[in-house]
What does this fold into?
Amino acid sequence: MNRKIIYRLIFILGLVGFFAYYAFPLDKRINLGLDLKGGMHLLLKVDTADLPPEERIDACDRALEVIRNRIDAFGVREPTIQRQGEDEIVVQLPGITDRQRAIELIGKTALLEFKLVSPDVAALQQALAGEVPAGYELLRADEDDEPLLINEDSALTGGALSNAYVRFDQLSKPIVALEFNSDGAREFAEITTDNVGKRLAIVLDGKVQSAPRIREAIPSGEAVISGRFSPEQAQDLAIVLRIGALPAPMHIEEERTIGPLLGQDSINKGIKATLIGAGLVLVFMLIYYIIAGMIADIALMLNLLLILGGLGILPVLFPGISATLTLPGIAGIALALGMAVDANVLINERIKEELSAGKHLRTAISNGYSKAFSAILDSNLTTLIAAFLLFQFGTGPIRGFAVTLTIGLAASLFTAIVVTRLIFELLLSLKILKILPMIRLFRVTKIDFIRRRRFFYLVSLVIIGIGIFTYFKRGSEAHGIDFVGGQLQEYSFKTAVPVDSLRRLLDELQIEDASIQQFREDPRVVLIRTKRDRTELITDRLNERFPDQDIEILRIERVGPVAGRHLKHKAIKALIWSLIGILAYVSFRFKHFNFAMAGVIALLHDVGIALAFLMITGRQLDLLSITAFLTIAGYSINDTIVIYDRVRENSHLYRKLKLYDLINLSVNQTLGRTVLTTVVTLLVVISIFLFGGEVLSNFAFTLIVGFISGIYSTIYIASPLVLAWTRRPAK
It folds into this structure.
């Protein structure tokens, strides 16, 4: 056996072992995103508007420290807390089930103040009538809603505390005990000494927790906060007081809470859909290409291993990037595997052409790889440029898509070009491979695709036009909450509940802006969309009205209007920059701007068709839809570049052929590969659509439409546009 083959084999086996080490066990090497395993994702904005400019950066740093300490005290395993931009903090809490408790713990400012209560009854009556005396404020005690006229100035603040902990009173009710530091104890003793007989209000974040009467001086430096606390509430209050107040108020700009039931359901359905889709692809390749298909299957399985290993090794090489697999990340893997299939199909079709031309087997394999190389390299590098720009300009989900796509593209190039060729050479050198039979469903056709181009231009314009009209007609209903703000609450019932009953319940609660969606594939699941956070109110009433339904919250998603506009802006920016990158690279490689522009218009066409079908079918545009658009763009340019590459090749072989005939010839020669690749990739996407669950339904539907449109646009949009704009073929 050739020594070079042995060395390459050892290298590949060593590389496989190295990546396998970082891929397994999966649960230790790769973290699942919150959309797969459940938990909370919060985007917090620190409101520094009332602070001097020089204090705003320090305030955000202090807020980050306070939140981290609170979460550590709360006992969350493996939380993620990091700053984003100038005044935003991203918090991820895996496995959290008590949503409201976590929000209160993280978002509570915890500004503790001790304020004297005015004993002047006449002044209190005046305040109740609407005339609050200067220097005072009218507040109500949380315990009994008693109105109190309180001094605006604090006698003492929580900054004087040294400790806070939970203990129980004589009635076994939880209270929060406070201990002051030495300066605080001295000041507290002076306050109680000078104001015996008066009431001292304990105010937390502007709300009176209690207002006990000072019966005697308290020199011990201890006080208690009593109220209607549960043990958990008392414990959380003690945590925030002990750690200290936030330096500025905090607002939740974005929240995504995934219940463990939905997370596990997403994993189960995702695995099922992936196994079915991958199984169909492996079987198809084996049946259609036989021995070459078996080699391609080995490459595809190895490709998946390299992707998983790449995710595992990523935090080792780049500590700032986490190896977290999310739903958009799965989309990146799907596109990478699709491109791996495409590369193998392209190579096998080229080998088939060489064998049909009467070439010897070894020569046919060598020529097949040589002729397919430029198209494979161009399509992968084009998509890689798009992935890089998506990472630079995209938000969290889109960046996750870009990371997995980048790893997948590198793995795809390696397995398709290096691994499969080595296997062929190994089999040839061992004289095991003597023939290479393949099924041929597609003969080289002689269809005049260009002749009917104007008709298909019109068809596309009509479909996209209907989509745009529907988009504007639907208004805000066309967008998910990712882009317009609002809140989603998804509930699971034991048995299906009539939508009319749910609508009457919401009417009773005077929630007029709510919409209700019941899923056809599982009518026990109901999605309620509101403009504001009504989760507690709706959940409490549902449990009262349907006590035997074992109601469970599957997920809650809340996006503020500012965050929604920000997400929309970033998504559009990421898409535009990726298209610019594709335009620049294709212009450089094919030395014709017209080629690149036609390809980009074909991408925009496919995105437009996908958007049109989303709107016509009543679906909504959200972040996963944008991720699907990016997947479509990456996949569509792949098809287009293959035809461009064949046009470039044929322009050297048939120098006297007119461009019209040259493009038609190239499209006909690559038609089988174009159809085969899309059909094989659709096997995976259709499996996700049918078996992946409602969370991935919108995403998979968009991909199905976009991939089918990709065949159409490559043949009837991109290719004819090159003819319309170019007088002679690229040399």
User: Anything to note?
Assistant: The chain has a mean pLDDT of 85. The chain has four domains: 3-97, 112-245, 260-471+564-725, 486-559. The radius of gyration is 32 Å. Residues 542 and 551 are 8 Å apart (CA to CA).
